[in-house]
Amino acid sequence: MTIVAALVAGTASPASAQAKGSAEASAAKRTNPHWKAPRTAWGHPDLEGIWTTDDMRGVPMSRPQQFGTRIYLTDEEFAARAKQRSTARDIDDARTGTFRNEEGSRDFGYTSMVIDPADGRVPALTPAGQARRRTGGQGSFGVGPWEKVQDFSLYDRCITRGAIGSFMPAVYGNGARIVQTPNAIVISYEMVHDTRVIPLDDRPPLADGVQLFMGDSRGRWEGDTLVVESRNFTDRTAVGGARHSERLRMTERFTRIDPEMIDYEIRVDDPDTFVTPWTMRMTITSQPDYQIFEYGCHEGNHAMRNALAAERAYEKAAEEAKAKGLPPPERVFERVNGADRAR
Question: Cα separation of 282 and 205, whole Å?
Fold first, then answer.
């Protein structure tokens, strides 16, 4: 039994009790252990629909150390989070424009997305993982310099966010459409428009020499849980804040726990990047009137051109300063998601 399954079934430690007002505490499967997920016409659990990770916006990926090994907030801690999320929604309800944040509509009491190891933190990187991080790949979230288009990430270049990154909550575009057939599951992500077609039959995996940005996936049903195992990744996308290796093996579990909630668990096993395997959990939800439109990523996107132009302007200013016997101009950085970023 997985960690999430144990919690839903009520077999976890009492120390793991959810806060009374949290969304996870009100899930149908939690309040009524006999609740059953709806079925498709051919008898599979029904996961179809438009789902988002908007409600995960208030949950950190790695657990703040003050929570120790606790998976859930206390009632008092949850009340503080709910107040903060309500304020965030009020602010964004007053905004207009393309980059208005999508704040969701529910409050979850998870202390972190990572649920294994027990401290709820992404494990340390191996030496190879550290070296891969130093070689770049952060793109516009890094500090440069940017000499060519390839110095930007695949996300910057509107190519992909990767199999895990495509569902990580960002300021907007956190939706996905799930479509089912008797023989396949199809997941189309809203941001950067990737679509995964996941066979449910017994076809063999691709040969080891074939690498894909989204990996090669095969699915199966274990009771009411869809289990998807993926391999054959490139080493050009990231997970847990680091570029993974081609040895990444990923196991996803989708379990519908409510008419409007699916627990989504991701097991990351990459011995070339992390010192130990680890597991992350999000609850994806339906949102009122949420629709997915075409994601025209390059329309009006001047980010790469502007960054490259700014780098050339900096180089010119540095050369002029050098000719005058002056130090180079200061680079200005800001903190974004805990890391320095040039601006």
Answer: 27
For the record, the structure tokens of 339 come out as 């890391």
Contacts of 251 (CB under 8 A, 6+ apart): 227, 228, 229, 230, 266, 267, 269
Per-residue pLDDT tens over the stretch 52-87: 999 999 899 999 999 999 999 999 999 999 999 999
Residue that the structure tokens 């916006």 belong to: 57
- C-alpha distance from residue 142 to each of 31, 52, 123, 127, 248 (Å): 45, 27, 21, 20, 23
Which residues, in sequence order, are bridge partners of residue 185? 180, 198
**Between vectors from CA 248 to CA 246 and to CA 254, what angle results, nearest 5°?**
140
* Residues in CB range of 69: below 8 A, 6 or more apart: 118, 119, 120
Pairing between β-strand 339-342 and β-strand 333-336 as defined by DSSP bridges: antiparallel
What confidence tens digit (pLDDT) does each residue in 96-136 have? 665 567 889 999 999 999 999 999 999 999 999 999 887 76
Please enumerate, as own/partner, the contacts of 216-222 that have beta carbons within 8 Å and a separation of 24 or more: 217/163, 219/184, 219/185, 221/44, 221/45
Between CA 281 and CA 154 the distance in angstroms is: 24
Q: Which residue has the tokens 């009006």?
A: 300
The confidence score (pLDDT) of residue 342 equals 54
- Quick: pLDDT tens for 3-54: 555 555 544 443 468 999 999 999 999 999 899 999 999 999 999 999 999 9
Mean pLDDT of the chain: 89
Cα separation, 110 vs 113, in Å, equals 7
Please tell me the distance from the alpha carbon of residue 229 to that of residue 221, in angstroms, as a whole number.
Answer: 11
